[in-house]
């Protein structure tokens, strides 16, 4: 009996040890002691710039889709309008300023603006109204220093793509949507092996030496030796 009790105790301790080992391996604060150095720091993003560059050059990755997703993630791509109006309201202007700031960072890209309406009114009237809204957005972006050669107000979707299916007035349907449409033809950085630099431009600039800041402050700034 005593031998059987010892066996039960040993099995219980072994099971507790296994449970403890599992809890340690699943705990990110302690897992690093049981895995190779840097395992927690590496979240899978290292080397993405080189990987993207290779995939774009061999056609494996849809570069326009990637940049469209980044635009949608970083900037509000939609502005809305009052009923039967193509006038930009203050909230829309603030959003379009954000869009312009993004667009200026990427001179390689072209953009389209799609106009939409709600379901009130005839289809022909709404199609023209949606186009006027898209054209109003393009004019404002151009006023922010964006070349009109990179902007296109496309034929409106009119009332054909509502966000909210209702035949009554609905502000969320009265909108424009700005999207990345492609590359500027003949731009020197397009598809020449510098895709990663375009995508990660902010990181590239952060690596510039301090000496490039000489003269900005107008004081006695001296670059580090």
Automatic annotation (TrEMBL):
TM spans (from-to): none
SUPFAM superfamilies assigned to the protein according to its UniProt record, in alphabetical order: OmpA-like
Keyword Lipoprotein included in the entry's annotation: yes
Residue ranges constituting the OmpA-like domain according to the UniProt record: 68-204
Localization terms from the record: Cell outer membrane
UniProt signal peptide: 1-26
Database matches in Pfam families: OmpA (PF00691)
UniProt superkingdom: Bacteria
PANTHER family: LIPOPROTEIN YIAD-RELATED (PTHR30329:SF21), STATOR ELEMENT OF FLAGELLAR MOTOR COMPLEX (PTHR30329)
Protein name: Outer membrane lipoprotein, OmpA family
Species, as recorded: Salipiger mucosus DSM 16094
